[in-house]
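Why predict the complex rather than its parts? Because the way molecules touch one another can change local conformation, and only a joint prediction can capture that. The input here totals 226 residues.
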Amino acid sequence: LAKTTQPISMDSYEGQEVNITCSHNNIATNDYITWYQQFPSQGPRFIIQGYKTKVTNEVASLFIPADRKSSTLSLPRVSLSDTAVYYCLVVYNAGNNRKLIWGLGTSLAVNP
Amino acid sequence: DAGVTQSPTHLIKTRGQHVTLRCSPISGHKSVSWYQQVLGQGPQFIFQYYEKEERGRGNFPDRFSARQFPNYSSELNVNALLLGDSALYLCASSSTGGGGTEAFFGQGTRLTVV
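Output of the joint prediction:
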């Protein structure tokens, strides 16, 4: 059964690096891992996406080990405005049916 | 360029009624996905359409249906509404819907069933 698991909440302070790990044990070889950020009353916003090893963009890095059963979103030097819920999304391809499985979200609180 | 637009933004329905939610993707995007998000939980995948064909379906009852039009806009229909259908319904568009494609979300439609 496809499942995506991540911590419910995390606390941090301004300027720190935050790492959020997601487990996706049943990921298939051709599935991508995507992370989204969501603020209250808004739709999710794309952060980063990867398939293997490491991906970096202007806001985050994504680390994916060789077995691909987990992934870690890294947010460098967080600020108060990074307080939000972060979701891990894995696309599972089962024949002609694609299922987009979201984690329950990690509520990140950044403190001054 | 306009982002993903959803209508209406809010609506209230009575149990047993039917509802139609609409989504216009970003210009040039051919894939639309629908999600249900209950307060305090992550989005639950309902459907994905690409080039007017269903590409994926989540674990929702047959009361939920959707379609995509030639202009790539989409409708989500829910029949025989239940109180538990109250949620934020999100639409996302992407260029192809395949792996490695970034999806852009609308602001959602807040449905309340009373």
